[in-house]
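**Sequence, structure tokens**
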Amino acid sequence: MVCARCGRTFDETKQDYCGFCKTVHAQNGEALRDIKGILRYISDKFGAETLLDRRRTDALISDIFPKEHAVRRLIYVALYDGCAQKLYAVRAKPFEVRCAAAARCVKSMRDEIGLKGRIAAEAVEAVGCAMGCEVAFKKSETLPAAATESVKNITDPAEQYSLGRHFDRLHDYEKALYWFEQSALQDYGEAQYYMGSYRLEGRGGAQNTEQAREWFLRGAENGIADAEYMAGYFCAEGIACEIDENAAFEHFMKAASAGSAEAINAIIMCYENGIHVEKNPSIAEKWRKFAENGTPVDLLSEAEAPQPTPDDGEELYQSARRCLSEKDMEGAAMFYLRAAEMGHTRAQCSYGKCLYLGSGVEKDTAEAFRWFKTAAEQNLDIAQYNLGVMYLKGVHVDKDLQLARHYFTLAADNGHAEAAKILKKLK
């Protein structure tokens, strides 16, 4: 599958997210970055009831969609005042009843939280869709973006950025500049890129290349590939700064690694013509194939091409530990399983323990044995000890002192003190 965000290819049969930019995709190949798609994904994968717990939903979105900060904030706001509970309670009611409940949710978010206009309506529709509660609003109830303009109420940077884009499409550049600046001042990366573009071109106000460069640099720091490319362009051309070929090439490489088409083209041109770097047509050709085919990473050296960020499940494992500290056993089991499926050895053992005890998940000693064995084969002492206990007690397997000694010996050799004690008694 070709990633809809960065254009690289990944194997959708093994994972539903791009290994490069971590963007999750639907089965039809669409990148899930909007509130409706993300909530639908969470609902389908973990059950609609998960949305009733906004803390767990927020943790899931943080782990599965780590780059979608703006959507995450909007979802948290949408669930904040019990929107999911209200819609879940009326999901089986007539359509008119569902729509009335949804309208009350929109009003609540407008009056109590300050979320305005179409954003509130779209958020409620997305929650309803994920909860299996179809709702719709009359056009008169879905206010246009211009109707939401309020310095007092619009404080969320994502909403401010959305308003900026709205007025940008209408070519009302003064209003667009105002909202982009409000959002950018709250460190919203996309808005910072637009601020750089507006200041560079003089849209909505006076042209100011120094400010444009500053905004592009700030956007680059927040991971915006196009802003990173523009920062390199400024260094290459000496706009509002001294010409710095090394810095320019470094910016281009970072932007290309993040998927900027302009930056990849710039890298190709640099290697073809010996600009900012030693001429090397061979490397230029490899980058050209990289741009055309999506992921010919094998053609590129590690220094030349972006590599997928290894995901060993450690973040999910730590999420499980946090749930455990808060006595949320179901949440812990859920995160342990996801980390275990990614190959995290300790998570495999911990999920096996959840299954063995029936903690946060239905008790299943056969599955527990399988996960313990998987972790034990990776030389984890506690998993080897657990297998020894199961063979010693005959849990799921027949009692077998020889195999029990075998696993206790492996665990003891790996430093497990309790296994060493039991081994002495068995001998």
Notes: Confidence is low (pLDDT under 50) at residues 139-152, 295-311.
